[in-house]
Every structure is written in C-alpha cells, then in structure tokens.
Task: structure prediction
Amino acid sequence: MPDFIHEDIRKLHLFDAMAQEHFQTLMRGAFVQTFPPQIDLITEGDPSDFLHVLVSGSVDLFSAWNGRETSMATVRPVSTFILAATIREQPYLMSARTLEKSRIALIPSVEVRAIFDTDSDFARAIVTELALCYRSVIKAQKDLKLRTSSERLANYLLRAQARAGGQPEFELGFEKRRLASVLGMTPEHLSRAFKGLHPHGVAATGTRVRIADRTSLERFAQPNPLIDDPKA
Amino acid sequence: MPDFIHEDIRKLHLFDAMAQEHFQTLMRGAFVQTFPPQIDLITEGDPSDFLHVLVSGSVDLFSAWNGRETSMATVRPVSTFILAATIREQPYLMSARTLEKSRIALIPSVEVRAIFDTDSDFARAIVTELALCYRSVIKAQKDLKLRTSSERLANYLLRAQARAGGQPEFELGFEKRRLASVLGMTPEHLSRAFKGLHPHGVAATGTRVRIADRTSLERFAQPNPLIDDPKA
DNA sequence: CGCTATGTTGATCCATATCAATAAGTGTGG
DNA sequence: CCACACTTATTGATATGGATCAACATAGCG
Result:
C-alpha cells in the first residue's frame, strides 16, 4: 500500500492513538483498491471479513428486504464503515456500493479484533468512533421520521452549502437521481421538491445549486443541531 | 442502593468484566429510582449527566422537531440507554419516558468516563455494548423504511410471541395506543392493521393477542434475522 | 449527430394521517 | 355496587405526502 494512504489512515481518529507497532501490523494485512462508480462492495448478510476505510470518493450504505431497497447512509472520506459488524463478529446488516469512483482500504477484521484486545488505546478510539457512528444514524433516523422530503432536501442543501464553504452557489457531488436516493425519495419527487423550494430562493441547474436567500431557506428548513450538526 | 440491584447491574455484560474496585466506585455515585408510567426522564438537548440503566419496566426513546414527535426505540430490561451521549460528552439526541412503572439506575457520566479511561476491560465492554446498540438502531431503521405498518405489526407480534415463550396466546406489555407509537403509526391505523392480520390468524382482545397460525403469519410477515433477530 | 441516460411534468394510485363520531372499558365517589 | 366521567378502541370519511406509470425534454457522449 502506498505510503501517503498509510498517512491518511493513520491520521484518522480511529488510528491516531494506537501503538505504531500495532498500526503497522494492521497495515501489513491491509490493501487498497480503487473501484469504479456503482460497484457493489459488500452484501448484507455476508460475514464481516474486512473493516473498510473510505479514502476517497463516496459510498452508499443500503439495505433490501422483500424486493424493496432503501438507502441508509452515505459515507464520505476519510471514514470507516461497518465497524460494528467487525467488532461483534457478526454479518453485515447493510450492503455497500460506490457512488463515485472510490479508493477503499480493506483491513482484515480478525486483525482489528486481535489488536482491539491488546491495545487499549485502540479500544478506546473504537468506542469514540462507534459512539459517533451511533449518533449519526440516530440523526439520520430523526431527519427521516420527523421531516417531509422537502424539508429534508432543504436541510440537506444547507448542510451541503456549509460543506462547500458557504458560497451561495455550489456543486452537488453527484447527479440528482443519486441525491434522490440519498434523501429517500424518487427522482420525480425530488424534481418537484426542488420546485417547491423555489419560493425560498433555491435554484438548481444540473448539479449546480444556488441559494439566493439563506435566511429564507432556513426559515423554511428549521435546521436543528440535534439533527443536522455532524459534530453533535 | 439495595444489593440485589447491585447484583443485577453487575451481571450486565457492560459491567461484568471490570475490576470490582472500579465497579464499586461507579455504584457509590449511583442511585436507583422508581418511576410511574408516562414520566419524562430526559429531554433531548440536555447535557448527558447520567448513564441510565433500566432495571425493570420499559422506556420509550423518542424525539421531536417542529411540533412533530416520533418514537425511536423501546428499551427493555436489563439494559443501558444513552451510552453514546455519555461517552461523547455531548447532549442527548433523544428524549426518554417510562412506558410502564420502571426502576432505573442512574450512574454519573463523569464517573463512567473516568473509569472508561483507566479500566480497559470496561472500555472493551463499552465497545461491545455500543456496537450492539448501533446494530439495533440499524435494524429498527430497516424495519421502518422497508416495511409497511402491517408488516411491522406482524413482525412485532412474532417477536413478542417469541419473547413470551412461544405460546399461541400472550400479553402485549402495554395498551394498543402505546404499541401504535412504538410501531410508528396512529392508534386508528393500528386498529385497521390488526383487522388486516385477521386472515393470517391474528386475534386481539384488549392487550391479549392470539396467533392461531404462526406459519401463515410468517408467510405474510417474512421475518428476517437481519432485521428481527436481536442477537444478530 | 443521433443514442441513451437523466431530468421534468402530468395523471393516478397507495399508504397512512387526520378528523369526527361512536363504542367499549376502567376507575372513582356516592 | 352502580352511575358517571374519562380514557382508550374502533369505524367511517376525507386529506396528504409520496410512489408509480407514462410521456416528453434534455443533455452527455461515442
């Protein structure tokens, strides 16, 4: 594995406190792969053989039952996914596929568990990471259960704008149909939802979005730190 | 705090590996309280001062936004709640209220964090507990996003029957209106959903439910371990 | 330059919520 | 032990958010 990726991973909160020796053991068994968009990485129900670390790109976690399918979360770099399955030595609860071209490091779960048992700094880091993941799914669930799809879109746009540095105009990272799936709605409905936000100063042309009047959009979206703040 | 509760808590996976000395420190600062049904225990947004351990009864975790409210999860004994908030030293993301009369142990979060830092067996136990909590919210989210309310009810009843020992007839723990909230629907809708399950051998009188033909109900409910098995 | 994927618009359908009325329990005080 | 009040459950009518289906418009891309 190239050194600069080593570095990126080492910088992750999950790995930055552990003994160098243990980190190297982890990295020896690990490997990095680059995947094109729309590639299935894991399937729910499979044994959790690898802890995944998304180095670049983005990944959709989704789930299916009885012929229906739903997106559960989007993973952005640099972060891990399916840590809980790795720790509990249980099958994955979600499937994963790349949204864009993505570089992913795969670390054998056995190694993670072995070092977790001996390196207590690593164990503590895992706690923090898991607590963070836990809180982020709770926030996702609140977003989903308490808001209509237009409200979700509005809040999503506010967050995306903040991520993009706060300029009035910015790029969505992906196509609208992807965004629809991320927000848990159909592309048709998203199209209408965008129209519905027009009166609040939102204009979308292709993957480019312009928020003319943030205050007005906020009045409609009612963002709340206990749902929208990734650090809360 | 009475000794037998001490015992119950010590038996919890979260506390059974830690040093006796540390456990006693935790218990010294802790206290147990009994609450009547429908009492608010915590409010989302409040600082996470206490780790809660439900000793008996049951607790509803819920959340509100913009005048709407939704139930997020039900806690059953003996287990902890709001562990993630305690660990991250962040405000609660959910509110909690008792469903039935409940006995709850409150352990100061500062103590939990202090011992988490020094007792690595405890830190490891927290990881396992958190991973379990994480997976259970994922399962709840899948249940919610992938199933209609009748399907959710059907699967709930199958699980409740299993919990009750598998007899064809058993008690729901609470009123139907509570069940409705737990399943994320209105009481009216639940009433109709029960009627809809009649053809599959479900009869409900008051809080008593009878499943005449489990096979038929299963054929409709399509239970799946990756959603319905609490151990997965 | 046309083909294929993406996006928009309109019509309709479905699950579930809401509102309203009634029925059935449940508990309390006389 | 019954009558009354209050809560909970059921049933019906209607509203709404969102999905689905179908047609059409656009835009990348080989």
